[in-house]
Structures are given as structure tokens and as C-alpha cells.
Amino acid sequence: MIELRGVTLTYPNGTRALDDIDLEIGKADFVFLVGHSGTGKSSLLKLLYREAIPDSGEVIVDGIRVDKLRRGKVAALRRNIGVVFQDFKLLTHKTVWENVAFALQVTGARSKDVMRQVPRVLDLVGLSHKSRMLPSELSGGEQQRAAIARALVNNPKILLCDEPTGNLDPSNTTEIIELLQRINLKGTTVLVATHNQAVVDRMRRRVVRLENGRILHDDERGYYFRGLGQSPVLSG
Ligand SMILES: Nc1ncnc2c1ncn2[C@@H]1O[C@H](COP(=O)(O)OP(=O)(O)O)[C@@H](O)[C@H]1O
Ligand SMILES: [Mg+2]
């Protein structure tokens, strides 16, 4: 579903964010992307939804060479990829319903489809009863659930989450990670960049660790720190 081959990304100021990355993620996989701040996690996600273009290597998403994609095809790619951020990025003057509906409307969806899809995803994230509220009237966990509903409303094959629990307390964090797991079980490929050691160690899913723009290790059923398990001493 996702494949990176020999990918290097250098920003215009000369920062080498990713260096010779090879990575393969299968359909309906669930992968944690971990590593210190500034190590290239967000950059790797950006390559997948064409927010960044590598200076060398290949980025393949669902059979498409994303690094070679023509500008006119970027919108179609992004309909196939839901993205969720730490700070939710909800439109503050729109209700939950409107935020979710907007993501469909910009694709030119018919109102019949909006009326069908919006309730479906609001129900999936458990926010049906708050659909008329504004983001400011919701808790952080609820705002993130609204953002996840918005990311899923186009039925993407892939969900990318960049520090999705970075602004949440432990109980909301657990709720969001369990939601991501349920979404994954329905067949969506889920890639989560995170600093949250407790979450990674509890879930025991595939863990890809970046360090200085390179893949340091890639473990099935991994831990945040390889081999250390639930070590409370280290952070990062
Ligand atoms: N738009 C940008 N321009 C220049 N450098 C950037 C830009 N975005 C990120 N970087 C740099 O690229 C490196 C990787 O950043 P990033 O992918 O955001 O790491 P992470 O998400 O792991 O914290 C860092 O050194 C960061 O400062
Ligand atoms: Mg980041």
C-alpha cells in the first residue's frame, strides 16, 4: 500500500530530513513511527500526501508514483489519504457536522452522499450527539475524534496521524488510540507518528524508529525503545 525506495528529502535551506529511506507498509497494516523530535517523522508523512517531494528515490502509494504525480492529480491522491494532526486543525466557526461535511463538499460530493456519509463517520467516532456543536464546545479528545471523522469521510485507504495524541490527557489518548485500532480493523492502513512511549509499548504493533532521517529499526510487535519494553526511565 505504501512503499519508499531510497528516498532522500532535503529542504530548501539544506536540512537533510530523510536519508535513503526504504520502507514497505502493507494494506491494512498498523504502524507506529517513532523517534526524537526533528528526526523526520512528519517529513516522512508529508512525502506520502505530497506535501513534500523527495530529491531522490521513489514514493509509491496505492500503486501510484506520488513523487512524480502531476499537480492536477494531487487532490485525487489526498482523497485517498486521511490526515490527522496534533492540533486537530478544525474550522473554528463551523460545527462538527459542517467540518466533516466540508471535506466531502470540496470534492464535489452530492448532498445525498453528504447526508449518508457524515452520519456514518460521526457514528464511527462516537460523536453523533455532538454534531451541532462548535469545536470550542468540545473536549480535546472529542475535537480529535471530529478531526478523525473528517479524515475518514472520503473513505480513504490510508490514515496518517502526526502526533494525534500530543495534546491529549492519558484517558483521551487511550480513547483515540483504540479508535485508530478499530478503524484499522475495518481495513484502513494506519500510520501513526508519535512520541508516546506508553501507547506504543501497550499496543505492541509494528514500530519503525527513525534517527537523524534514517530508519534505525523496524520491528513487528515492537517497543518504543527496542528491547527495553516498558522502561519508565528513558524519554524521547
Ligand atoms: N519546512 C522545513 N524547512 C526546513 N527544514 C525543515 C522543514 N520541516 C522540517 N524541517 C527540518 O527537517 C528535520 C525533520 O523534521 P520533522 O520531519 O518535522 O521531524 P519530526 O516530525 O520527527 O519532529 C528537522 O531538522 C527539521 O528542523
Ligand atoms: Mg513532527
CATH architecture of the largest domain: 3-Layer(aba) Sandwich
Biggest sheet details: 6 strands, mixed
Strand content: 25-35%
How many individual helices? 7
- Do you know the CATH topology of the largest domain? Rossmann fold
**Adjacency order of strands in the biggest sheet:** 6-7-8-3-9-10
Structural class: alpha/beta
Indicate the percent of residues in helices: 25-40%
SSE sequence, one letter per element: EEEHEEHEHHHEHEHEE
What is the total domain count? 2
Mean pLDDT across all amino acids: 94
What Rg, in angstroms, do the CA atoms define? Answer: 18 Å
Small-molecule binders here are: adenosine-5'-diphosphate, magnesium ion
Give the topology, please:
Elements: E1 2-10, E2 16-25, E3 30-34, H1 41-48, E4 56-61, E5 64-65, H2 74-79, E6 81-85, H3 96-105, H4 111-124, H5 140-152, E7 158-162, H6 170-185, E8 189-193, H7 197-203, E9 206-211, E10 214-219
Parallel strand pairs: 3-8, 3-9, 6-7, 7-8
Antiparallel strand pairs: 1-2, 1-4, 4-5, 9-10
Helix pairs in contact: 3-4, 3-5, 4-5, 5-6
The protein binds adenosine-5'-diphosphate and magnesium ion.
